[in-house]
Design brief:
Oligomer: single chain
Number of strands: 0
Distance between the termini: 38 Å
Strand content: under 5%
Number of helices: 3
Order of helices and strands: HHH
Radius of gyration: 14 Å
Structural class: mainly alpha
């Protein structure tokens, strides 16, 4: 099985963008939507950076950032669901 994480993380960001386009914007959710777009698209960007890491330590650090951004995205999804 092929786990093309570069493609999957890019698709994740694209799916979030598509999802956000379906939501009506208002004064409550507009900042939440902005935040989730940043965190969701950052997962893929940081994964691409990890693949170009200069050392194993650098790679691990960038992968950890991917994990943090994914967790932040989960938080924003919860806030958007409430809003």
């Amino acid at each position: 099985m092929n786990y093309d994480l570069e493609e999957r993380t890019a698709k994740f960001g694209e799916n979030i963008i598509d999802f956000i386009r379906t939501i009506e914007k208002n004064e409550i959710n507009r900042p939440l939507l902005s935040q989730i777009i940043r965190s969701a698209t950052s997962v893929g960007a940081n994964y691409m950076e990890a693949n170009q890491a200069s050392s194993k330590k650098d790679f691990k650090n960038k992968i950890k950032i991917c994990q943090k951004e994914a967790n932040e995205t989960k938080h924003w999804l919860r806030m958007i669901a409430r809003a």
